[in-house]
């Protein structure tokens, strides 16, 4: 399960890139309302018809939701103009759900982009026109995933540098565990081979067992010195045992009242 955001201003070739790299891949769903309208009704003119646009929106949402629930990749084309809080919100929501994310930013010379836009015919639909719709509608898809996913956030811990989240999810009828932090940025799971890694992506490790993942979390982050935001009730006993061990080893430290509240 992964979301790939292909971003950039008008004329940099986002649609061409997506079509070239992803259109023929069976395990990839392309989320683009205008493309779906053209597919369903023959041209981008369908976006001018309220009923046809709504039909394209519903179809796009359904396909993206099913793709994510089946563990596939969804590619989202997104127009950037410097006012991109919606993009960051979608990425944040995906990370909250434990969905892998990748951002591909396309650029080109300004005059090249301008000429492309000026020469574009009826086969061109500017992503600028659906920027806000993409933000709103795809966020709704992510919220639907949250409602349907067999997924637990075991804990969320906050500090001055941001938050750390620890997750359980079901993969192939087996529980898997991993954790991320704000510093992870755009992340993906560790691939099987080194050559599969891409520049600019922070890779995180999946664990087969809760105890293994929890031990790795404690080794990497001083979580009991931070502030708990949420602790899943099913895992409180493990956190309580680790917290008591932490206090015994750090006898000079005072107890953290926030942890006492969550674990009692």
Q: Topology as H/E string? A: EHEHHEHEHHEEEEEHEHH
| Beta-strand segment tally | 10
Q: Which class best fits the helix and strand makeup?
A: alpha/beta
Q: Order of strands in the sheet with the most strands?
A: 2-3-1-4
Overall pLDDT: 82
Based on Cα principal axes, name the global outline: elongated
* Largest beta-sheet characterization: 4 strands, parallel
Beta content comes to 15-25%
- Tally the helices: 9
Rg (C-alpha, Å): 22 Å
**Low-pLDDT runs:** none
Distance between the termini: 36 Å
- Helix percent band: 40-55%
Can you put this structure into words, describing what you see?
It is a single chain. The model has no long low-confidence stretch (mean pLDDT 82). The protein starts with a strand and ends with a helix. It has helices spanning 14-22, 33-41, 50-69, 85-96, 110-119, 131-148, 210-220, 236-249, 257-263; strands at 2-8, 28-31, 73-79, 100-105, 151-159, 162-171, 174-181, 187-189, 202-204, 227-231. It is an alpha/beta fold and 264 residues long. It has a four-stranded parallel sheet with strand order 2-3-1-4, with helices on both faces. Helix 2 crosses helix 3 and helix 3 crosses helix 6 (131-148). The relative contact order is 0.12. It comes from Algoriphagus confluentis. This is ATP-binding protein.
Helices, strands, pairings?
Layout: E1 2-8, H1 14-22, E2 28-31, H2 33-41, H3 50-69, E3 73-79, H4 85-96, E4 100-105, H5 110-119, H6 131-148, E5 151-159, E6 162-171, E7 174-181, E8 187-189, E9 202-204, H7 210-220, E10 227-231, H8 236-249, H9 257-263
Parallel strand pairs: 1-3, 1-4, 2-3, 8-9
Antiparallel strand pairs: 5-6, 5-10, 6-7
Organism: Algoriphagus confluentis
Protein name: ATP-binding protein
InterPro entries: P-loop_NTPase
């Amino acid at each position: 399960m992964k979301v790939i955001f292909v971003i950039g201003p008008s004329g940099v070739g986002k649609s061409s890139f997506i079509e070239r790299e992803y259109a023929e891949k069976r395990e990839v769903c392309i989320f683009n309302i205008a493309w779906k309208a053209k597919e369903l009704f023959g041209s981008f003119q369908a976006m001018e018809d309220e009923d046809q646009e709504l039909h394209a929106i519903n179809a796009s949402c359904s396909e993206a939701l099913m793709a994510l629930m089946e563990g596939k990749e969804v590619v989202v084309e997104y127009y950037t103009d410097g006012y991109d809080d919606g993009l960051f919100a979608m990425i944040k929501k995906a990370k909250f759900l434990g969905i892998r994310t990748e951002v591909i930013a396309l650029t080109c010379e300004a005059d090249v982009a301008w000429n492309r836009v000026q020469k574009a015919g009826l086969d061109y639909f500017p992503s600028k026109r659906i920027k806000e719709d993409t933000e709103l509608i795809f966020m709704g898809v992510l919220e639907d995933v949250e409602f349907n996913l067999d997924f637990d956030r075991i804990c969320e811990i906050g500090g001055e540098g941001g938050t750390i989240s620890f997750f359980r999810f079901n993969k192939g009828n087996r529980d898997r565990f991993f954790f991320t932090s704000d510093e992870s940025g755009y992340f993906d799971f560790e691939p099987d081979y080194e050559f599969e890694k891409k520049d600019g992506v922070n890779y995180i490790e999946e664990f087969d067992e809760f105890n293994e993942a929890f031990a790795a979390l404690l080794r990497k982050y001083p979580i009991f010195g931070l502030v708990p935001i949420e602790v899943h009730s099913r895992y409180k006993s493990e956190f309580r045992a680790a917290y008591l061990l932490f206090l015994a080893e750090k006898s000079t430290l005072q107890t953290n009242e926030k942890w006492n509240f969550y674990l009692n």
